[in-house]
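Exercise 7.
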Amino acid sequence: MPSGMMESRVSVIWQPRTTVMKILHPLALGLTLSVLGSACVYRINIQQGNYLDQAAVDQVKDGMTRSQVRYLLGTPLVADTFNKERWDYIYYLKKGRTLHVDSRRVTVFFDGDKVAKIDKPSAAEAARQDASLAKIKNGRIY
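Solution. The predicted structure, written as tokens, is:
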């Protein structure tokens, strides 16, 4: 068999494979690098505001002074400059890569120096939030 005929057969056989490989090789490499790169990124926990312990929130009663509320719940996250009679306590936690967010909100209204009203979650809602927070802190929510 003449050598020219053998070369033409080889080039016909390998030509489609090289074209496919020219496309698939960079695609496979890019996919592999993106998968490996995304697995290595560390996401920090984002925690903002005052942690609102339900036992402390339940201790706040009508008639308590501002200093007593501050002792139980801490300094309010949002102190309204236009309305000194309202304190907002907000808590937010997002752990790492999870999509789950735990957020709580308690608002204390004052009449003078005494608590007039407390806007807080119901007991059932608070129990659900505590269970959700325990799962987040233990790392069982993904």
